[in-house]
Amino acid sequence: MGYQDRPRCMHDSGCGAVQSATHLICLAHLEEEDWKDLLSTLAPGSDLDARGVTFSFKRWAELTARLTDRNSDILKFGATIFSETSLPENADFSRAHFYGEASFNNTQFKGDALFSGARFQGDAWFCIKPPGNLKFDGAQFFRESAFTGSETRILADFSNVQFKGSAEFDCLEFAFANFARACFSGLASFRAAYFSSGVSFHGTQFNDDMMFTFVCDANVSFDYAKISRAVRIQIAANTISLHRAQLESPVVLLLRYARVILTDLALSHPLTVASVPRLFNYEGLADLPEDGLSGDPRAWIEGLWGVDVAPLILSDIDLSRCSFDGAYNLDQIRLEGRCTFADTPRGWRIGKGLPPVRLWTSRQVITEEHDWRANPATNRSALARQGWKGDPEYPESPGTAAATLAVIYRQLRKALEDSKNEPGAADFYYGEMEFRRHDPHTPRGERLLLHGYWLLSGYALRATRALGFLLVAMFLTLTLTVGWGLPNETPKQRLTGVVPTKPGEPITLTTNTADPTLTLPYSKRFTEARAEKASEVVVNSVVFRSSGQNLTTPGVWIEMASRISEPLLLGFAAVAARGRVKR
């Protein structure tokens, strides 16, 4: 059409619009007769160059009436340029057909920019700043389309839009953009984009590559979306939801600040969710500003209900508020980098209860344990509930059963063990044993055994506790041995025999040792010499050996008990230390 070579309007006003095809002035300044002559040359589907033209209400109505197909009542354009054009309030491109290229760069609208149901057969470019909203719902783009430069006050509706070619939304700014149920058959590019009030890809289909690097001060929804190609997505946002999304190829989500919702997510290929410590940037140039976001930039996951997490890879994610109840194949989840969980309460707790003083050992826990321990329905002791943070929305609900918590901890433990993180798995083994102990369906004998296992050594995970009980046991053995185990003195052997009266008869000898006896008064039993002998019994008992000392009958039983209990406690301490340094 030679648009680039067409000169500007020669009207005295110096409007700067492009000249019409038949005169030296623009469409807005044509005399009425010349205007009608020009209209007579137009028909539905004609090309139109209206760069810089300011249309009146009347002339716009006459122009669109001439370009409207009377049979279908559809406005039809050929190759069209509305760059820097000023359109009247009645400008409406709803259901319009553009058979050639369409350019709307810096087009001025008086109200909403209406393109609902429009069809673009050629390439389309948009850089428009309407005072109202931007409406493309139900539109179809058959070739390349590009949108840039909008301001943050605009609400953009692209719901149910069909993008057959590539679609670029680079470097744009919207308040809120709705792409619900849209279909991207070509490249979908959202680089250096910014959304102040959110963006929705609810039910959107992405059938080709995606180039997503944008910032959203509010929520980003991929609920029910379908992603068919392997993609890498970078988003800084307040919330990102993938509820019931379908990921049919490997997807990498690199996130900042976001609360991540993955409930009922359908995974058939690996999904990697990772926190990024640095700001995102556009093509390695300027960093994307995040002025509307604050707090910890690490992404955190809210819940995994209904998700088969076998293909899920989490890296540097905050899991302190993540609910694992309802997830499948938790033993196959991959945790990489620094994935953190919730902690136990810190500090001493004093109050009514047995015992009246509580100090929780430091370990990683899941949020369901916080809910379980803070819930009066499952934990009656007010002292035991102190410091645990339950779900404020369901303060009186039964919560997750102890048996279910034991299973969750067991599966997470196995996942960490499979990744060779034995020390990290220790806390989850502790949690598993805790809820086996608290599970009312565990057999009573097994629960008693678990209570003792917990009390003596923290399930062979608390070396200091086991060593403490070992020292107590050694002191008790020493005290009992000194007081009741050692005899008055070491019994002496007596040799007796019979001398034969006839030659050739054998001599008979008998050795007798007196039974160890203890008759000393209590004031003379606890002496340094007796304590030294008793210490030999204690030290040998720790390594499961007999001291060889002569002991009274109570002393024999004391030594037998110590030879069983003390090596067991020493073994608990060794296992606990090994569990923290095992490679």
Query: How many structural domains are formed by the residues?
Result: 4
| Parts with pLDDT < 50 across at least 5 consecutive residues | none
Number of helices, counting only DSSP H or I runs of 4 residues or more:
11
Query: How much of the polypeptide forms β-strand, as a percent range?
Result: 15-25%
Q: How many distinct beta strands? A: 38
Question: In which range does the helix fraction lie?
Answer: 25-40%
Estimate the mean pLDDT confidence. 86
Q: Mind describing the biggest β-sheet?
A: 21 strands, parallel
Care to describe what's here?
- With 583 residues, this protein is of the alpha/beta class.
- It has four domains: 11-143, no CATH class; 152-340, no CATH class; 343-442, no CATH class; 463-494 and 514-581, no CATH class.
- Helices cover 26% and strands 23% of the residues.
- The protein contains eleven helices and 38 strands.
- The chain has a 21-stranded parallel sheet that branches. Strands 2-3-5-8-11-14-18-21-23-25-28 form an eleven-stranded mixed sheet. A two-stranded antiparallel ribbon has the order 33-36.
- Helix 8 packs across helix 10 and helix 10 packs across helix 11.
